[in-house]
Amino acid sequence: xxxxxxxxxxxxxxxxxxxxxxxxxxxxxxxxxxxxxxxxxxxxxxxxxxxxxxxxxxxxxxxxxxxxxxxxxxxxxxxxxxxxxxxxxxxxxxxxxxxxxxxxxxxxxxxxxxxxxxxxxxxxxxxxxxxxxxxxxxxxxxxxxxxxxxxxxxxxxxxxxxxxxxxxxxxxxxxxxxxxxxxxxxxxxxxxxxxxxxxxxxxxxxxxxxxxxxxxxxxxxxxxxxxxxxxxxxxxxxxxxxxxxxxxxxxxxxxxxxxxxxxxxxxxxxxxxxxxxxxxxxxxxxxxxxx
Amino acid sequence: xxxxxxxxxxxxxxxxxxxxxxxxxxxxxxxxxxxxxxxxxxxxxxxxxxxxxxxxxxxxxxxxxxxxxxxxxxxxxxxxxxxxxxxxxxxxxxxxxxxxxxxxxxxxxxxxxxxxxxxxxxxxxxxxxxxxxxxxxxxxxxxxxxxxxxxxxxxxxxxxxxxxxxxxxxxxxxxxxxxxxxxxxxxxxxxxxxxxxxxxxxxxxxxxxxxxxxxxxxxxxxxxxxxxxxxxxxxxxxxxxxxxxxxxxxxxxxxxxxxxxxxxxxxxxxxxxxxxxxxxxxxxxxxxxxxxxxxxxxxxxxxxxxxx
Lengths: 291, 308
Prior knowledge:
- The complex is a heterodimer of chains A (291) and B (308).
- Chain A is an alpha/beta fold and 291 residues long.
- Chain A folds into two domains: 2-204, 3-Layer(aba) Sandwich (Rossmann fold); 215-283.
- Chain A has eleven helices and 13 strands.
- In chain A, the strands form three sheets. Chain A has a six-stranded mixed sheet with strand order 5-6-7-3-8-9, sandwiched between helices. Chain A has a four-stranded antiparallel sheet with strand order 11-12-10-13.
- The two termini of chain A are 32 Å apart.
- Chain B has one domain (23-304).
- Chain B is built from 14 helices and no strands.
- The longest helix of chain B is centred in the middle third of the chain and has 41 residues, at 128-168.
């Protein structure tokens, strides 16, 4: 069974179309990076999947309609919607008590174990914690829930590099077990590139790219062209070309690696570069960059 | 053997998932969370009670003097004079409860949207119905019970202190207990709190509705539209039908729940209460029906509104 399945998913806010007929299937056990510029529709897509907003079209999360089946669905789904949404008045022990009280799949011992590795004191109020600690606390609560789907919408926004790294390391080492599904959006694409199994580019409410990381590595090549080979390289139809320090960097989709190697240095492009290339290709102009 | 079964368990955590919690657990924990967040629910009545107690301690010195001074009056007049502080304490604690209730209802569904913590609450398996009903229960059950408990405890302590003061001066404390005995006083107070709670339920519902709807300045949205409509009616057709409706909702419970005429016998306060008349008054039931409609609206809005 697919974890998330959408057919013709559409959502408009007044005149603004946030999701413009999206079809997607996210299988169980994947870590999907949802990447797109601000206002692309990422959060709308996640909010629809979490049953926070109504939508048009068909959407099934763990086999249920998230809007009508939300109360039941939330036993199997966890999310961090944004940093610092933990209520500021709450004390750490209250958060533990509360989640243990209402969530049938919460393992309190696991949450405490995770908190013991941090500087967070149980008597502290959320408002007294630093931004990084609030995220650690939230992660401790979420990770102790035995959920089938975890949705992270910009979970590390505003955190410094150390906290961000620790966040994803913990997620991967202590949480992900290949049966759970994780969907994550972030502007720091490079940092999560290694943990993803799939990625999806979204822009103007449409899916621009949907591929596994394996496909991505097989499909896309970046060529740093030697100046004398520029014409030959262009003849191979790069999907994007840019200048870096006087050299042309071209991006190819499904090109022959051997043929490219004869013209310059070949490597796998970074997600960020691919993103820029695809966004520019679709729009005919540079977009706000997500990475 | 045991190691193999452990291996199986490790690979199938879902099968070993804990059984579902009873449906009342989320409701109970939602109540707990309200009391954590809004400590004023018990702190405000406690502080008022503390102040009242402080005042009474100062006054207690004069209590023997007051008893001698009022000895020439009829027993009823004397007990009214001596009982005044008790009534004042009860009224001020109840007043604190009303104010707390007003602001609690106004903030209950507004604050969580403003600080976006609603996204945290909604990430847990607690339905909108459970959440909103827990807030209704705090306003209409928990708060009245807290107010009653604090007021009764305060009065009891005052009564004991007063008796001790009289006894220390060689006087009989029975004067404090005889005419308006503690039990009867308490029954009157319980009655008053229950009556007001039921009567004000639609106001509580209205405030929760505004709280779940307003994007800013919830207090203005709560107060100005009803007032504005009254004024508009007055200006447009020169009647005050809406105003009397509003007035009836604010103070009408007095005429529905208590029988008082000049010269009525005050010796037995319980005889003044008209619970059957109150329970059969359409104003009560129309109000409760309105409260249900407002609460249903608040539940719908909590599901559909986005964080501000």
